[in-house]
Automatic annotation (TrEMBL), chain A:
A UniProt-annotated Pfam family: NQR2_RnfD_RnfE
Protein name (Swiss-Prot/TrEMBL): Na(+)-translocating NADH-quinone reductase subunit B
Keywords in alphabetical order: Cell inner membrane, Cell membrane, Flavoprotein, FMN, Ion transport, Membrane, NAD, Phosphoprotein, Sodium, Sodium transport, Translocase, Transmembrane, Transmembrane helix, Transport, Ubiquinone
InterPro entries: NqrB (IPR010966), NqrB/RnfD (IPR004338)
Subunit and interaction comment: Composed of six subunits; NqrA, NqrB, NqrC, NqrD, NqrE and NqrF.
Primary location class: membrane
Enzyme class: translocase
Originating species: Wenyingzhuangia gilva
EC numbers: 7.2.1.1
TrEMBL record, chain B:
Protein name: Na(+)-translocating NADH-quinone reductase subunit A
EC number: 7.2.1.1
DNA-binding keyword on record: no
Name of the gene: nqrA
Taxonomy, superkingdom: Bacteria
Pfam families: NQRA_2nd (PF24836), NQRA_N (PF05896), NQRA_SLBB (PF11973)
Amino acid sequence: MDFLRKKFDEIRKPFNPGGKFEKFAPAINSIDTLMFVPKHNTHKGAHIRDGVDLKRVMVTVIFALLPAMLFGMYNLGYQHFSQLGESTAFLDCMIFGAWKFLPMLLVSYGVGLAIEIGFAIYNKHEVNEGYLVSGMLIPLIMPVDFPLWMLAVSVVFAVFIGKEAFGGTGMNIFNPALIARAFAFFSYAPQMSGDKVWVADASTIDAVSGETILGQLAAGAESSWSVLDMFLGYIPGSVGETSVLAILIGAAILIATGVGSWKIMTGVVIGGAAMGLIFNALGLNALMEFPWWQHLLVGGFAFGAVFMATDPVSGAQTEKGKWIYGILIGFFAIMIRVFNGAYPEGMMMAILLMNVFAPTVDHYVIAGNIKKRKKRLKAA
Amino acid sequence: MSQDIRVKKGLNIKLKGQAAMTTAAVSRSDFYAIKPTDFHGITPKLTVKAGDEVIVGDVVFFSKGNDRIKFTSPVSGTVKEIKRGAKRKVLAVIVESKPEDQFKDFGAANPLSLEKEAVLEKILESGSFAYVKQRPYDIIANPKDSPKAIFVSSFDTAPLGPNYAFALKGKEEAFQAGINALSKLTEGAVNLSVDANEASFFSKIENANIINVSGKHPAGNVGTQIAAISPVNQGERVWTVSAQGVATIGELFLTGKYNPTKLVALAGSQVKKPQYYTLSAGQNIKSLIEENVNVKGSRIISGNVLTGTKIQVDDFLGFYDNVITVIPEGDKYRFFGWLPFVGSSTIHSFSKTSFAWLNSGKEYDLNTSLNGEERALVVTGEMEKVVPLDIYPLQLLKACIANDIEKMENLGIYEVAPEDFALVDYINTSKIEAQEIIREGLDLMIKEVG
């Protein structure tokens, strides 16, 4: 790789200190460090360092997202063609899905990274890798036909207000991807909810129904999908959220590598199941009667539990806190689902709500430790 | 009396070049240095000037803040130079050695038959009080304090750490005398931690509370042992003395001489034949390094790879250091090296985003690469795995960065020293300098609380 390194060193010359574009160094550095781990040596503290860095952690999350993304793309085509009664050959579905999804991905990354690099130049720090994950999450939690310009505006809002306003990566209170979705949801409701948006072209072709399972249930109808479809993901919904199987593969990657907290994931499932059981016992409407374990399969529950709730920055940061945080997310997600008829999905709201309370949860967990210390002082 | 501690958290990093249990001679150096920079927080008041003659044990400078704390020459010779840095800060007092050492006589005595003040006075006069450090703050103790306990760790779990049972072979009597002397200085106990997995003479030491410690690094750190036995509360003082320091203090009482020579391990993958050498604190290491080390492209560290200080070929052994580690410098780009699992066989990682954990017995030849760049604090839950204290490391670090004194107190700043956070330096994903942050936090506490 020496040739490539030399070529790149030539290209980046004007960006080096003293060069013409010195100010824009973070931009070129972000490309540089994407190709090569820089040759920085330790100059204080421990003389040796672990092989892990933030880029590796973030890329692990992206790898974990790939199964959900690939199935999501396939399912875009599958939902569209199957409702039209056309061939659902694998390749056709994939090409259709890619045609629909890749522009969303490009807009998300393009707009988001441009702002991140802009802020890095302005604040004179290096570009943090956080957006590599957010940028992929955002299109995965949007409906397929969401207009690209709206997506772009949502990304701008998420990065500006959701992240940089708080001081950038590591400082944000809310999960940036969910901020993008919440912004889109409240600003562009017709494109984000209802029964016309969850399958490609459902709003323009009458033969295509874009209703989700939760939508059907909220309207008082029975779910028309089999449990296997729910698990495998052959159902309408946001691009990446439908396949529990693909999400579980991602969860396995996150847990095995230790990148995602298994405590939060388990907590969410426990909380959701508990709330589902309570509602099953009450059984007042279709959503309450919907079996508790199927609640965990539909909507954004699994995706949120694995990829959204586990965001270490906006989530609880203490190990005990992670359990509480996770359980409450599951609890509220199902509660919001059942009580809020206008918006039969609770995961986004539940996670954003708990993002707000995560510092409080941590505060009380840490207060226990402080109390122990003070008690010891008194005894001494 | 003996107690057991099992340290469950932590990490052993195995490196190539562990010092063999053999010793080799090293010729007497021409120069020795007493470096105020070895003693954190001490402002030196010099008592010698260039051209003065000194013998071993003569005072070279004392602490401006406390004139009872003296620092003495490790060698007989002539003061050659007072090395100064910016703002005339004294960096080192350099002594050109004579071929033979003459020792100042502080008078042999049995510490057990002396009063506390007499024991303390002798230690202070000889300059060996520098070995007595205190928690909180990890600085040289104040002789006026009466510590609630004294802790001595007789083993080192850091990567390529020296084996004190070997290094102190033949000094068993001195070590016992040192423990006897220390037992006079505290109302509480002298706690001597010994490696539960290795039998040594330390277990048979009297006048000390023997603590059998097992577990991964930092099990051998006094900080870990204090936290488990007698955590430091606000206002309390615990003293700590290194094993080599105890022997030096003991020898003072046995012979009346201050003799800071010790067996020091020369270790690391760049060392031709890693083993032990007899060196004196402050000894110039040029000939030792040039004869035994591949100098080109190497980093020479006085101390271990986690807490040591980078030095040059013609530098001096640090006062507290019992190992000189030499490892390769990084200086290499790695194409797509940030991909998960890439480089698992050559680059150790605590994280499971590398396969290194599958091969925990492997010895690595690690270099000084940062393996990334500093980033915002994102990942949570990793620091807790290597800090076996009952504190929240991430939150404490953040409190230190924010200079929030009340929060630092609440979160346990009095219980920590930079070395307790050395593994956090190593494992943290964001490449933040945890030891430096803790040091600055402690310095702030000294200034504000004292």
